[in-house]
Amino acid sequence: MKGANPIRPPVKSDGQTLDVQSIFPTLQGEGPYAGHPAVFIRLGGCNLACHFCDTEFESFKPMALAAMLDKVDELGGRARLVVITGGEPLRQNIIPLCDALLAQGLTVQIETNGTLFQPLPPDVKIICSPKNTGAGYFPIREDLLPRLQGLKFILSARHPLYQHIGQVGQEKYHTPVYVQPMDEQDPVLNAENMAYAARIAQTEGHILSLQTHKILGIE
């Protein structure tokens, strides 16, 4: 959205209907499940507006929970991973959705910016991608931090806010840190960002995360 999206606050509901951008089969391209067949549930709206955001999540429509589950079942095939992303998925009450997916024996992963919290079921895997506000990275919420499977930091060779790894509380829980090159929609800048992220991963002991789905040319 390149920061052009409206900032949307959290929504209170019973979780039986959610604002859904799209549901689609793909390969998870990032983080600890990179390469795994997955069904993505992309929810609409975000409570932030990041200038580098490359995702469209504002043409969402309301969708009933039962219809979402049917769609996941239709598209899932042999995939056992469901990724709930956005926008910012924790804007909406996704607890009933997570409960239903886990009850089917699926692995559920959430991708969040770390500014909101819900008491998600214990088996839900949570990846957090902290964002720099301009005054640095805020520490991740204490109610969320112990739950994280990993932290994903976006890196840019030129953008001053995204040249370093923020200290957001990861050392307290020995949370794995993934570093990912920023996609700036420019081949030259992206090549610089990839080399920069690789160097940071090697010198600081983090895990390099490339957007495999983009390399493959899939959603």
Q: Count every helix, treating DSSP H or I runs of 4 or more residues as helices.
A: 5
User: Strand share of the residues?
Assistant: 15-25%
- H/E element sequence: EEEHEHEEEHEHEH
Structure class: alpha/beta
Using the alpha-carbon principal axes, give the shape. globular
* Share of helix, binned: 10-25%
The low-pLDDT segments are none
- List the strand order in the largest sheet: 3-1-2-4-5-6-7-8-9
Would you mind describing this structure in some detail?
By secondary structure, the chain is an alpha/beta fold. The chain has one domain (17-216): TIM Barrel, CATH 3.20.20.70. It is 22% helix and 24% strand. The protein has 5 helices and 9 strands. It has helices spanning 65-76, 95-103, 170-173, 187-204, 212-216; strands at residues 17-27, 37-43, 61-64, 81-85, 107-112, 125-128, 148-155, 177-181, 207-208. A 9-stranded mixed sheet has the order 3-1-2-4-5-6-7-8-9. The protein is globular and about 45 Å long. The two termini are 16 Å apart. The relative contact order is 0.16. The mean pLDDT is 94.
Keywords:
TIM Barrel; nine-stranded mixed beta sheet; 9 strands; globular
